[in-house]
């Protein structure tokens, strides 16, 4: 799998390259600024881009902007955005085109190499990887939302993991449930939220995120 | 329109008349306190003066459309006792603060040039602006008086006054305001004094809160992230030692170290959010407020109309103010919806936060709102809170000069003075010396009165009359041009 990496801190960039290569991923470009990133994304057409939000030269949201521009030119280009802080606003902008292949994680998530690589692969396959903190914020701002309030605690747990972008199997593993039990929960959640159920994992996640983003 | 202006002009003349009487009373009071030593009369006299001129200021704002700021020096604070409980005033010591406080007040009133300008205004108002504004009404009254006396020429005055009223009356009412501003507005010195005292207060507040903020950050770092990093280091050290002998335990320790570093990061993130939210740095005020709105459980609508980014300190003050207002709405108001509107008018930034809660918020309770006011105060910003019982609550934040730093136009300059003189005196050459003399000459009345042209030998009479009218018109034109120029400058400064 071919990866383009953008991170301005040398130490962190080297660490990430090392981590990705150790898991058999091919880092074709490791850049350190917004313009370089855009150039690399458009010419290399990688299977996934791993991008830090804040990049030179402006040190604002250069990375995010470059990713969004690249996705306009190369529709569906999978992008995993890393940041020191997560904002619903950015998550919304990333998800806006509704085509999936989006990841948005806190930088500390790279501490757990296995899970991080799992997220990279999921996004590269067109799936979604949202940071638990984004989901927690989404749910908190939906706290007074009628249908969300009617979910049972267990259903909420399932919803959280589903919104992060995990498959039924992964959710079951996490919560020590059988896959069919998770399936039942998800069916209930979809019924309570008034969403049309879908067998396709990715489409299911996007529906849930769109619902939570509606506030 | 014309009738309203006529009535207002007459009312302004009446106010000027009242002011004249107040001026008489004040003169007696001032003489009594200065000559007879009845100093206790002075403060009430000044209070009376100020109340009367305040009325004129209000009227000129409401009727003439000329805003006049209060020019007075800031009131002195109460006297502070010495360490032994006595009060010092000059070379004397007093047991109670009464006399030092009175002396301070006396000094404050006596030395404020605005006191004496008020006094001067009340004397002059009737003869300058008041007469100008009230001229049509006076002419009508004169005509009625003469008609009642059986003099048919009396019919001329009301006809003349009402005929010209359409152009004259609105202009005269405005002119009254302009003249009043010259005498009642703050001088540059008073304006600076007011600004200095406001800035001194704001600086103290800012320095205090900045110091408190730094102390809080230091404590948070010391007890939080710093302590956790020490723990991480120690845990890694322990793991290193166990690596050979007990790899399983070492692995567990390393996992613990990783968790501790995650916690440290989370704490740092929260701390950073409290110092300067990253989204504010990355996107500016508009998007930061949008992000804030997304994070609250209220259904929040945000409308932003801003030409560009603001200065970072200002952005941050505005952001934290909105954040605090939203937090209050969530915690105390029981609201389900909120509206945030950010807009700019000239250089002024205005933020309105409204919620549909049950209201009853009070800025004097709780430290949150006081904190906002302090923070905004550093930028001359103000917070106005309107929260009736039963709601809704509306908070308006106004930050002047937020969008561009422009120095305020000095209120009294040669231009303003020339303009005031032209506005106030141009009627003399036009009307009495011009038109009235012309009418007297045409009708052939022998009365010469104070009309210059009629005292001259015959061949010079007509040229003088026409010259007078031209002079008056010229003064009027100068005044109008200067007014327009001033308005344009002001608009430019605001753009």
TrEMBL record, chain A:
GO terms for molecular function: DNA binding. Residues 2-122 form the Response regulatory domain. InterPro entries: CheY-like_superfamily, NreC/VraR/RcsB-like_REC, Sig_transdc_resp-reg_C-effctor, Sig_transdc_resp-reg_receiver, Tscrpt_reg_LuxR_C, WalR-like. The modification 4-aspartylphosphate is found at residue 52. SMART domains: HTH_LUXR, REC. The keyword GTP-binding does not apply. Keywords: DNA-binding, Phosphoprotein, Transcription, Transcription regulation. Residues 144-214 form the HTH luxR-type domain. The keyword Zinc does not apply. GO terms for biological process: phosphorelay signal transduction system; regulation of DNA-templated transcription. Pfam families: GerE (PF00196), Response_reg (PF00072). It comes from the Bacteria. This is DNA-binding response regulator. The lineage of its organism: Bacteria, Bacillati, Actinomycetota, Actinomycetes, Streptosporangiales.
UniProtKB/TrEMBL annotation, chain B:
One of its GO terms (molecular function) is phosphorelay sensor kinase activity. Gene3D superfamilies: 1.20.5.1930, Histidine kinase-like ATPase, C-terminal domain. It catalyses: ATP + protein L-histidine = ADP + protein N-phospho-L-histidine. InterPro entries: HATPase_C_sf, HATPase_dom, Sensor_HK_TwoCompSys, Sig_transdc_His_kin_sub3_dim/P. The keyword Iron-sulfur does not apply. Signal peptide: none annotated. Its EC number is 2.7.13.3. Keywords: ATP-binding, Kinase, Membrane, Nucleotide-binding, Phosphoprotein, Transferase, Transmembrane, Transmembrane helix, Two-component regulatory system. CDD domains: HATPase_UhpB-NarQ-NarX-like. GO terms for cellular component: membrane. Residues 313-403 form the Histidine kinase/HSP90-like ATPase domain. SUPFAM superfamilies: ATPase domain of HSP90 chaperone/DNA topoisomerase II/histidine kinase. The chain crosses the membrane at residues 12-42, 126-148, 417-440, 460-482. SMART domains: HATPase_c (SM00387). This is histidine kinase. It comes from Planotetraspora mira.
């Amino acid at each position: 799998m071919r990866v383009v990496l953008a991170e301005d801190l040398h130490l962190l960039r080297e660490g990430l390259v090392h981590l990705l290569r150790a898991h058999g991923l091919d880092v074709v470009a490791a850049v350190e600024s917004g313009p370089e990133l855009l150039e690399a994304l458009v010419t290399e057409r990688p299977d996934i881009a791993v991008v830090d939000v804040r990049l030179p030269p402006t040190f604002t949201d250069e990375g995010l902007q470059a990713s969004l521009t690249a996705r306009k030119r190369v529709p569906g280009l999978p992008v995993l955005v890393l940041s020191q802080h997560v904002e619903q606003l950015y998550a919304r902008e990333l998800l806006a085109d509704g085509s999936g292949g989006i990841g948005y994680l806190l930088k500390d998530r790279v501490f757990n190499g296995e899970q991080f690589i799992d997220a990279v692969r999921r996004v590269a396959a067109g799936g979604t990887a949202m940071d638990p903190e984004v989901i927690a914020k989404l749910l908190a701002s939906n706290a007074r939302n009628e249908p969300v309030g009617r979910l049972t605690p267990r259903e909420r747990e399932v919803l959280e993991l589903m919104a992060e972008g995990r498959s039924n199997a992964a959710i079951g593993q996490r919560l020590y449930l059988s896959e069919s039990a998770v399936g039942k929960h998800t069916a209930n959640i979809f019924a309570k939220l008034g969403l049309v159920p879908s067998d396709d994992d990715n489409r299911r996640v996007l529906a849930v995120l769109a619902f939570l983003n509606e506030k | 329109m014309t009738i309203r202006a006529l009535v207002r002009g007459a009312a302004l003349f009446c106010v000027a008349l009242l002011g004249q009487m107040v001026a008489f009373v004040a003169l007696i009071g001032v003489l009594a306190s200065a000559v007879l030593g009845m100093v206790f009369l002075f403060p009430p006299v000044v209070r009376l003066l100020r109340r009367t001129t305040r009325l004129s200021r209000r009227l000129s704002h409401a009727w003439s459309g000329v805003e006049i700021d209060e020019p007075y020096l800031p009131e002195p604070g109460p006297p502070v006792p010495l360490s032994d409980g006595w009060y010092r005033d000059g070379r004397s010591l007093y047991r109670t603060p009464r006399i030092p406080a009175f002396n301070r007040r006396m000094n404050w009133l006596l030395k404020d040039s605005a006191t004496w300008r008020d006094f001067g205004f009340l004397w002059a108002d009737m003869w300058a602006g008041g007469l100008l504004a009230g001229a049509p009404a006076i002419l009508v009254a004169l005509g009625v008086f003469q008609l009642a006396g059986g003099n048919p020429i009396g019919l001329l005055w009301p006809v003349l006054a009402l005929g010209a009223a359409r152009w004259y009356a609105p202009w005269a009412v405005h002119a009254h305001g302009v003249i009043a501003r010259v005498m009642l507005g703050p001088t540059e010195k008073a304006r600076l004094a007011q600004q200095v005292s406001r800035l001194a207060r704001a600086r103290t507040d800012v320095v205090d809160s900045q110091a408190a903020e730094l102390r809080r950050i230091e404590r948070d770092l010391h007890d939080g992230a710093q302590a956790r990093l020490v723990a991480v280091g120690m845990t890694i050290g322990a793991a290193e030692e166990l690596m050979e002998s007990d790899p399983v335990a070492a692995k567990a320790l390393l996992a613990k170290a990783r968790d501790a570093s995650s916690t440290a990061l989370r704490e740092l993130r929260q701390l950073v959010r409290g110092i300067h939210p990253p989204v504010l740095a990355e996107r500016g005020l508009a998007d930061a407020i949008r992000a804030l709105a997304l994070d609250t459980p209220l259904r929040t609508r945000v409308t932003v109309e801003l030409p560009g980014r603001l200065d970072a300190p200002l952005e941050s003050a505005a952001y934290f103010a909105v954040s605090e207002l939203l937090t209050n709405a969530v915690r105390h108001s029981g609201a389900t919806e909120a509206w945030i509107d950010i807009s700019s008018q000239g250089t002024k930034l205005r933020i309105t936060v409204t919620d549909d809660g049950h209201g009853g918020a009070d800025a004097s309770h709780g430290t949150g709102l006081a904190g906002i006011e302090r923070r905004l105060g550093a930028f001359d910003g103000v917070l106005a809170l309107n929260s009736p019982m039963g709601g809704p609550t509306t908070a308006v934040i106004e930050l002047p000069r937020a969008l561009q730093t422009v120095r305020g136009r000095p209120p009294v300059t040669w231009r303003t003075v020339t303009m005031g003189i032209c506005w106030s005196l141009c009627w003399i050459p036009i009307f009495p010396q011009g038109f009235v003399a012309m009418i007297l000459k045409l009708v052939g009345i022998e009365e010469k009165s104070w009309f210059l042209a009629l005292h001259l030998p015959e061949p010079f009479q007509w040229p003088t009359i026409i010259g007078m009218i031209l002079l008056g018109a010229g003064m009027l034109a100068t005044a109008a041009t200067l007014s327009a120029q001033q308005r344009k400058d002001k608009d430019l400064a605001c753009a």
